[in-house]
Write a structure and sequence with these properties.
By secondary structure, the protein is α/β, with parallel strands linked by helices. It has a single domain (24-184), classed as 5'-nuclease (Rossmann fold), CATH 3.40.50.1010. 31% of the residues lie in helices and 33% in strands. A six-stranded parallel beta sheet has the order 7-6-4-10-11-12, with helices on both faces. Strands 1-2-3 form a three-stranded antiparallel beta sheet, with no helix packed on it. The longest helix has 12 residues, at 33-44. The protein is globular.
Length: 185
């Protein structure tokens, strides 16, 4: 779904393809960077154009906060440049160290932190945008919609996104269809 829109000053609305959104909607964007990174790499051998992603998700509305959840590894080359690029895109970083267990298992999970931040921010938002296809976020989507009455948009690559998450969202944006979001290597 693309976010083509036209301004309608009389009603102070944005007319978006497939949905109606209001210019004065306060939105918060919560990006599961690991999920997005791996989906873009595995599907397209490409990377995500974060400035274009944010611009398309905001779609003329009032951005309150855009958060990116990343995992820091001491061995990853170019990691600090990647983090800096995310910040230049307007994303506020939440960083967690990669956990390595004695048996060699590595864990890099931000699900709970992302959910807590979205819930904490929800009183100040009209729309919560989750950029992830992870099915573990289904209870969060349900809570935000039915528990606190927020609109919930999900943006992800459709082929790697949970069908239940796509269905539960008030709006699902297939990033494969958003122009200039995928940067081929």
């Amino acid at each position: 779904m693309s976010f083509g829109y036209e301004k309608n000053n009389r009603e102070n609305t944005l007319i978006m393809k497939g949905n109606l959104g209001y210019v004065n909607q306060r939105i918060g964007i919560f990006v599961d960077v690991q999920n997005l990174y791996h989906s873009a790499r595995n599907l397209y051998h490409a990377r995500v154009n974060y400035p274009e992603l944010i611009k398309n998700l905001v779609a003329g509305r009032q951005l309150i906060r855009a958060m990116a959840y990343v995992v820091k590894s001491d061995t990853a080359l170019g990691e600090s440049a990647f983090f800096e690029a995310l910040e230049k895109s307007g994303l506020e970083l939440r960083i967690k160290d990669l956990q390595i267990y004695p048996d060699g298992l590595k864990k890099a999970d931000w699900d709970v932190g992302m959910a807590v931040d979205a819930i904490r921010m929800s009183p100040f938002l009209d729309v919560v945008v989750l950029v992830t296809g992870d099915g573990d976020f289904l209870p969060l989507i349900d809570y935000l919609k039915w528990g606190v009455g927020r609109l919930v948009e999900v943006a992800a690559f459709k082929r790697t996104a949970s069908a239940k998450v796509q269905e539960a969202a008030d709006r699902f944006t297939n990033l494969e269809e958003v122009p200039r979001v995928i940067l081929r290597k």
